[in-house]
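Pilot study result, target chain (593 residues):
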Amino acid sequence: MSGCFQLISAVTLAKLIKEECPSVKHVSLGGNYITRLADDCMKEWHPFFEYIDSIMMYDGEEPLARLLEALDSGDDNLDCVPNLCHAKGGKIYKNHRIEQTFINDTVPDFDGFALSKYFMPELILPVYSSRQCFNHCAFCTIPGATGGCYRKMPISRVFEIMCRLNEKYGTRVFSFVDETFEGKRMEQLADEINASGKTFFWHGETRFSPTLSTDVFNKIYQSGCRQIQFGLESYNQRVLDLMKKNTRVDWIDRNIHDCLNAGIPVHLFFMIGFPTETKEEALNTLAYTENVLNYSKQVCGVPYSTRGFTNFGLVMGSDVWNHPDKYSVSVMPKSQYEDLRLEVDYVSGTGLTLNEAKSLSDEHHIDFYMQEVINGSDTIDLPQRLHISEVTWILDSIHAVRYKGHLTKVKRRLTSLNPADRIWLDSKTSVVLVEPFAYFYNSEYHHVYAVSQLVYLKLARLLEADCSISLILDQGDLELTRAIEELLHYGLLNTNIDADYVMHDNGFQLVKSSFVKEVGRSKEGLRVLLSCATHRMCAVNDFSFALLSLFEKPITKNEVRDILKKEGLSANEEQLNKLVDNCMKADILQLIR
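Predicted structure:
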């Protein structure tokens, strides 16, 4: 779906260029998504060609050069440009296809990009060492839409490019965007970096392999690798074989164990509901990945491992699409309004149905309700915010962000602090003004908090004056005081008093966070609550939701019990403790001193 949205933006821009820039001779689009769209869907003239002139399909380096030559010569006949899809006389023409055999090893140029404006601790730049993939998984469209054979750049040149980017842009963090970064080549890169003594950090995606060993992972960690992404897809050998993964379950176990014990976090990609997969097989994969994350955190001391999954999607151009009978699949026809949709509905002859796979994925997905928050939420959709989970965790790993686990941070009132103490904006906090709010964002902890611009202006004047806590309290501004307490609690402002972390709520008052939203209901009818500052969530029933209103002002659990007794309600100790614990973990309730 994201490719569709990007395409709409691209065509909109093309339309504006056509209207506002008549000197522009030719507008061409390229990339994986538009290639598959042109290849599978554009059999006749399409309205897009009112705003664009051509589509460069597959790899674009050689077609782009040939297209520029043709346009510079003034020749309107584009039939000689390979891999080009273009319209002429109301018809679609697709030129001869060439398979690219070379790899572009030019140093990437990021001049002109606003690299300093991303809300992250430091710059990450993409690099690649190879093109295409040497495996042809049954669900994947990369081989068909990219074009050319699998080809790779000498690792010495890859390392040279990293050094050049480091010298020019100051980056030391690199994201390898290879479809598959071979394990042997990762080891070679590690040798180059380790021999140079440079401090680089990087991550990439690879395949499980019997050639990856404990020594290799240790060497890779030493070179600065802080995450390896594995295409797990399933933890069932039968399903892996049907997918044409060419992977063994015993390789998976050994690689993940050695990787984590070397200190390298893993990110596991997998899917639910590949044709013929049963519910038991899907649950087996879910349980396995959950165990991996727990092992990573609790045994290896690596809290940065993650997983990403969704239900299987039947995509045009994949082997399942080309040969549905082999996978017991019947493809459903698309409607006339789905001409930009490359993922199609299907009926599976055995195993999980499409709806069952979606439901199972939703039930286990940690971000299931996040879309409800993102849609139309002024607290999440920050300008230029980089919201990519893998990148977030990689940077956390690099900067060794400490996670307190079961401990809870105590929120302090300003009146409990030393009046002579001063406050300041944390060095990793950025402020963005979006009427009528001022958003504070900490790039290390990924916390965000919004205050009115009026409160922000008052705070900004105090910060410029190197203010003390006594000066803040002298203002007598309750709204300002509460905002500063919240900003201190989330690490967006700093003071020279170390934060307190405690295990239990005994002896503390509790208060409901002022930055909480109800974002929907779960499948069980529970209310889903989100802390917009930390993005943590929890689900509560209607009675518990009503009970939370008692925490609008600081109150102890004993005082809550007394109120319930006066109302004739019996307070179940276990249920009340569970509600408080769950809401504390989700930052819905805060401990306050």
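One observation from the pilot: The longest helix spans residues 279-298. A full batch analysis is planned for the follow-on phase.
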